[in-house]
Amino acid sequence: MAPQIHEFSESGEWIRASVEEITRDIPKNTAFSLALSGGSTPEPVYEALAESSLPWNLAEIFQTDERYVHPEKPESNAWLIREHFLSLLPDPEIKTHFFLSSPDLIWEDSAKVYDTLMKSRSVPFDVAILGMGPDGHIASLFPNGPELRENEKCAVTSETNQFPVWKRLTLTFPVILKSKKIVLLLKGKEKEPALEELLHGTKSWEEWPAKRLLGHANLHVFYWRG
Ligand code: 6PG
Fold it and tell me: Which residues have any ligand 1 atom within 6 Å of their CB?
């Protein structure tokens, strides 16, 4: 099925519709799992998601990627998820699986630990919530990176010199694309050309990794023009 694209001029509507889609198909009384990305876009959506009436005691929260910095630093995706989501939940003690980052574990070993965790799970994520960089990266899968073609490992290291924190930890495409649903969140005028390239551009998926998502049967794009 073609991706469902939803564009909004109002942030409130964008947030409400994104949360509605994220929660819509979550089973009401069985375990479910969400994979959360970082960056800045998801903050208000995570805050609104925390107020939804999902059975959080049945939830398992994973990360799509992490920057290799101390989890207490604001550049860390774990910090974003704690600050704008977990801390707002009725029961912040829900099951979460963060990448272990500096200095708790050396970079490569952290990827191995998360890879083992992901391989121990047979159930795909109910929803993977992603953003997209201005270069078309999703999670920490950057253009032309060797990790784009990783098909064995579920989690690997990756590197960028274009964005904050060069050393990264990321899920690979096979795990992300196995999700039952993918919600891609975009906001701001600066993302308009990126969305145009995603939907109508001529770059290959190696040059624009988000294009790998277009083949997913249950992809929903929520764009607030800002
Ligand atoms: C990260 C994210 C990354 C993010 C994009 C978009 O670690 O930065 O996981 O994949 O979704 O970079 O970031 P913004 O939402 O800040 O534009």
Answer: 37-41, 64-65, 67, 77, 131-133, 137-140
pLDDT at 73: 94
* Spatial strand order in the sheet of 155-159: 65-67, 167-171, 155-159
**Rounded to the nearest whole angstrom, what is the distance from the C-alpha of residue 164 to the centroid of ligand 1?**
10
Q: Give the residue carrying structure tokens 């249950």.
A: 218
Q: Which atom of ligand 1 is nearest to the CA of 168?
A: 7
pTM of the model: 0.97
E strands, 68-195, are 95-97, 127-130, 155-159, 167-171, 182-187
Residues 18, 223: Cα–Cα separation, whole Å:
9
Q: Which of 18, 140, 173, 191 to mutate to test the pocket of ligand 1 (most atoms within 8 A of CB)?
A: 140
